[in-house]
Amino acid sequence: MTSSDALGAATAHLLVGRERDLDQVSGMFGQHTSGALLLSGEPGVGKSALLDAVARAATENGIRVLRAAGAEFEADVGYSALNQILLPLHGILDRLETPSRQAMRIALGFGAGPLPDRLVVCNAALALLRSAAEDAPVFLIVDDLPWVDRASAAVFGFLARRLSGTRIRFLAASRTGVSSFFDGTGLPAYELPALEADAAARLVDLRFPDLAHPVRRRLLDAAQGNPLALLELPDALRADQRRAREVLPAVLPLGARLQSVFASRVRSLPAGTRTLLLLATLDGTGDLGVLSAAARETHGDADLRDLDPAEQDGLVHVTDSPRRLVFRHPLIMSAVVAAATSSARRLAHRALAQVLADKPERRAWHLGEATLQPDEEVALLLERTARRILERGDAVTAIAALTRAADLSPLASDRARRLSEAAYVGAEAIGALRSASELLEDASRADPGHNASLSSANAAVQLVLNSDGDLTTAHRLLVGAIEEGSHGYDAEDPALIDALYFLLLLCNYGAREELWVPYYAAMARLQPTAPRLLMVAARTWGDPAHADAATLRELDEIIDSTTKETDPARVVRVGTAAIYPDRLAAVREAAWHQVRQGRDGGPVRRHIGALLHLCLDDYHRGKWTEVLELSEEGLMLCERSGYSVCTWFSQYTKGLVTASQGDTATAHALADAMTNWAAPRGIREAVHCALHVHALADIADGDFDAAFGRITAISPAGSFPPYVAHASWVFFELVEAAVRTDRRAQAVAHVRALRETTNVAELSPRLALMAAGAEALVAEDDAEAARLFAGALATPDADRWPFALARVRLAQGERLRRSRALSESKAPLTAALEAFQQLGSVAWAERARKELRAAGRVVAEPDGGAASALTSQEREIAELAATGLTNKQIAERLFISHRTVGAHLYQIYPKLGIASRVALRDALHPPDAR
Question: Contact, 81 vs 56, CB < 8 A?
Fold first, then answer.
């Protein structure tokens, strides 16, 4: 390895994203180079960091490093930089001949006498360095070259041109475009670029791993690959800003070092130029027409020619098509704001508001920033702006507009109302529960009589549900606020409609008929009429077993009108109404849009809700790997945001998959966690979902008696209680468990109730398939059972629901085999086995396998070829996990997320017939095969 290669290898791990740049710099150590390199770059681009890395690597490789750095206060002191760099060689000055030694001692300040001729000093310095290089290679590194004194700069220039063929190398750095006394004409140069996008992202992730995604993206955009900015901008933000719970300022604040780098150039500009730059920064569009008009508002004789000094200094330029003012770097805008006084900023905001009369949203923001005293007109503009912003899904910015509107509200009641609405948005959309609580306290202080308002109640209910409060308390609080409100039951009142949607949620969570009485009473009083979705969702989500055909047609019409919906709240509300009637496939695209928006910083609550909808649809469609991955995302979101009330969503969907695969220990643990949290709070819907998971796990274990007990705790045999929504999804488990435990009368009663008292079979093809399968299970006559099974399996689109279809086929095969129709049983049993194997459903696959053997068919044992059932990626993940690597380590090796690794492992375990990673090694490489 050459010295150049050694330096490159040693520095590669020291800096993020600088491998190519280090190769360029280390190339100067080759045998046939001049031995000198001039490094330049923008302020903060990382020149000093690169010099430090190269110096450390050179030292580690046995190279003697001599360093100097220009300093403004020493720029007039002759040979001050030369003194810095050669001081470590003071001990070998005696090796020089007397004239050279004397010249060096005087130049470096170690001796007295007339100042020697500069050429003598140059030759003496070269001789001293060559002498030192006889002991070890020497590396001269000079930083901040523009501040190096004239005499030292001349010596450095002399040395840099005479290093070829020596063991001496020279590296100097300076800012791009800044002049110095150093003459670099003809010397090799390298311009250090900004970090590439992926490297900039990696640097931010390493130093600030907890930045919210939208904040991270904003910082990356502002820094444009400048390492100093990437490292300092996050520190200038408050904790809630870094977590995306508080809106970021329009112009990001600069830290002290960034201010010293960028603000000094702005402050040196003429006052008129600074005013135009401030207007351009606060406007943010670069529109020259707006800039010119706003400039005239501030100074009647203002002229765009005042921009000339900034253009000449390279801070801005004007594009040709379209004609726009563009800042060379976003941080210059931050420097412009930092250099302006608060009064100058308010004046600029007011001028912009005057010329943006036809842009109400932008005008409202500028007026909000320009106004100091309470002003209801401006407050009202900001409140209206907040509503428009909220419809686009930007809850954080909406909260900022509402709180500013509250600050400018002359009346205490208006201030309290706007603070309460901000609190509700914070609690409902982004999980800012602590700040929501603080906003509610501020509202109460502003107007103590405001506590019963709908916005206050909505926010308070969120706080109750996400703490140790119970559902009954939350329900009573919200009903009281609705009944005592001054809204007049106006169906156009957004706070009232939000409260009713919240009441709908509480009623569903409670799963008790009496909770619905005040809901329907309020709906009946709405004028002119209740919103259609509120009525439909109460039936399809609250009591789906009894939803009639007209309601389902209304739901389909609502879903059809939602395909291009952008309001996150409505998208999730429509999806919620679609859960039990299995219409989630129709809202998948809208749900994915919410997830992508959430990942980019959109409303957390809507993100979590959309994940639930995707997971439920994926579970029924057999896309179980995606269920596990999205469930993990949901659990992580709930933990980070504080939405404990939503944690059971993801526990439920993960529990469905693990139970269905046969990982019953995990399934029972998840269900226990759901019950332990939900039962004390009276959230019976979550308890019912937990019982569903328990029952599936019991059936997977062959414990049908336990499964019967779980399901009848949701829905007693022979009964579908009103407003127990989950009863419409667990009837097949109840009937199957009853049949398998000789409770035929209960099974028959439940099928009769299903047929005569509900509309479950009309909700969806999947439920029609399961309902027909349940009828076949209780048929006494084998011929009748065969007819019913055939009818079930002929359900249109039955193959869209692979697990449900395979379970009905398994039941059909079991019935045929038990009735001695052995030949006829093999086809449905084989189809069921193949489907279960494809899904990774180990327990059900084993049931099918046993039935096939009993029918006389030879079926291969799963252990012999289990590993071969894995996909190539599953095999790779399994092999790595078997070596003891963690999910995170595997993810880093395969360039995938750790959640994806976990999801794959949950698919791998049942395919291999194991329950945990400790058994992976033996499953992949059985001891008798080793």
Answer: no
Whether the per-residue pLDDT at 452 is higher than 60: the answer is no
Q: What is the DSSP letter of 165?
A: T
Longest CA span, the chain: 123
Take residue 883 and report the two structure tokens written for it: 């070596």
CA 137, CA 834: separation in Å to the nearest integer? Answer: 71
| Gap between the Cα atoms of 390 and 380, Å rounded | 15
Number of H helices, E strands in the chain: 47, 7
Provide mean pLDDT across the span 365-375: 94
Mean pLDDT across the stretch 509-535? 95
Q: Give every strand in the sheet of 36-41, ordered side by side.
A: 64-69, 138-143, 168-175, 36-41, 189-191
Question: Chain-wide mean pLDDT for the chain?
Answer: 88
Lowest-pLDDT range of 415-424, 504-513, 733-742:
415-424
Confidence of residue 814 (pLDDT cuts 50, 70, 90): very high
Residue 351: count other Cβ atoms within 10 Å of its Cβ.
26
Task: For residue 172, count other CB atoms closer than 10 A to its CB.
Answer: 29
Strand partners, 930: none
* Residue 807 identity: R
Tell whether the torsion through CA atoms of 243, 246, 252 and 257 is positive or negative. negative
Give dist(CA 683, CA 676) in Å, integer.
Answer: 11
For residue 179, the tally of other CB atoms under 10 A from its CB is 8
Question: Distance between CA 710 and CA 354 in Å, rounded?
Answer: 67
**Residue 609 backbone phi and psi in degrees, to 5:** -60, -40
Q: What is the spatial distance between Cα 414 and Cα 809, in angstroms, rounded to a whole number?
A: 63
Beta bridge partners of 72: none
| Selection from 869, 867, 874 nearest residue 904 by Cα | 874
Tell which residue, 197, 214, 202, has the closest CA to residue 596: 214
C-alpha distance from residue 63 to each of 48, 163, 258 (Å): 19, 15, 33
Most confident of 115-124, 301-310, 319-328, 437-446: 115-124
Whole-number Å distance between alpha carbons of 625 and 647: 19
Q: Which residues pair with 808 in a beta bridge?
A: none
Omega prior to 188 cis, within 30 of 0: no
Q: Residue 65: beta bridge partners?
A: 139
Work out the burial of residue 534: count CB atoms within 10 Å of its CB; fewer than 13 is exposed, 13-18 middle, 19 or more buried: buried
**Hunting for tokens 């140790």 — which residue is that?**
468
Q: Are the beta carbons of 440 and 419 closer than 8 angstroms? A: yes
